[in-house]
Design the sequence.
């Protein structure tokens, strides 16, 4: 089995930043990714534009030049691939970590391809792979989507969009502009305060003019093949429906974290246990990096405010 100083799980932007920091400090390392390079970004909506400006997404002293102030998904994929090339990072894509166990004073990491040994592990797996489920009848139907790619396949159809955040608003507006009949179902009394400032007037105007129907303080109770039931303050409403986009957020892979021995607090935010200065978990030698640190508080941590995690982690490893 190969022996490394550090195994990094996750080849997203923060995982890449950890790999760069390992290389700077002459550590032996390997980045393991169960999907493609920056897998979560790849699965973002095709036409997505970042909220952050390109300079705030930079890692490894590689400039991020985009056509506009806010880069697109496509530009980000190209940028992070260029970063991986420039630093010649040691990455294994499509290799899933299946088990982490103790091996004397080290860790043994079993993957879908091999086994290796490491003194330290950094978990930078994010949260985008694990949607928050509705847990209602019919959610398992193929018409229910927890991810959105592009609007064209849904033209002229009856679309329901669940959620009060940016993802839900983007889906509603894009499908509406492709000729879909769009209904939004929002559990809260209003949209989240984090809605992008240049999008908020658009969605509010479409709702006010009746182009997009919206039920606030409401929830879907049942999903059927051709219709859905909505529980509203005025009572149950049944409407025709072809597809449901449940943009209800995402969460870290808690099962994976617990299997690694990491404690997870049983409060509302379900945050894994780690030291906020060193990012070491309750398991000595295992660290968290990036948005996985936020637990269910997925709206507080982003690429731009977690880039520094890598340096802090390696400062502690070197101490």
Sequence:
């Amino acid at each position: 089995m190969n022996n490394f100083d550090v195994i990094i799980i996750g080849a997203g932007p923060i995982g890449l930043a950890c790999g760069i920091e390992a290389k700077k400090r002459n550590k032996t390392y390997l980045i393991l990714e169960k999907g493609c390079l920056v897998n979560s970004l790849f699965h973002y909506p095709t036409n997505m534009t970042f909220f952050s400006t390109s300079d705030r997404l930079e890692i490894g002293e590689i400039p991020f030049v985009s056509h506009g102030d806010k880069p697109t998904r496509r530009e980000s994929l190209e940028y992070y691939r260029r970063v991986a090339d420039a630093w010649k990072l040691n990455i294994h894509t499509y290799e899933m970590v299946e088990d982490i166990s103790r091996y004397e004073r080290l860790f043994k990491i079993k993957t879908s391809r091999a086994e290796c040994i490491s003194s330290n592990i950094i978990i930078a797996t994010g949260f985008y792979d694990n949607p928050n489920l509705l847990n209602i009848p019919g959610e398992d139907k193929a018409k229910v989507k927890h991810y959105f790619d592009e609007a064209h396949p849904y033209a002229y159809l009856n679309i329901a969009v669940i959620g009060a955040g940016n993802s839900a608003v983007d889906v509603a507006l894009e499908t509406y502009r492709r000729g879909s009949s769009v209904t939004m179902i929002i559990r809260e009394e209003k949209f989240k305060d984090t809605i992008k400032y240049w999008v908020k007037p658009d969605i509010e105007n479409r709702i006010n003019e009746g182009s997009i129907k919206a039920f606030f303080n409401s929830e879907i109770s049942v999903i059927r093949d051709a219709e859905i039931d909505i529980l509203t303050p005025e009572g149950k409403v049944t409407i025709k429906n072809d597809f449901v986009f449940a943009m209800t957020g995402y969460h870290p892979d808690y099962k994976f974290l617990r299997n690694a021995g990491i404690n997870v607090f049983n409060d509302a935010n379900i945050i894994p246990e780690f030291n906020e200065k060193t990012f070491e978990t309750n398991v000595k030698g295992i660290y968290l990096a990036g948005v996985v640190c936020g637990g269910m508080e997925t709206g507080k941590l982003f690429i731009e405010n977690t880039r520094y995690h890598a340096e802090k982690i390696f400062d502690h490893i070197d101490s």
Remarks:
- The chain has a mean pLDDT of 95.
- Residues 134 and 177 are 27 Å apart (CA to CA).
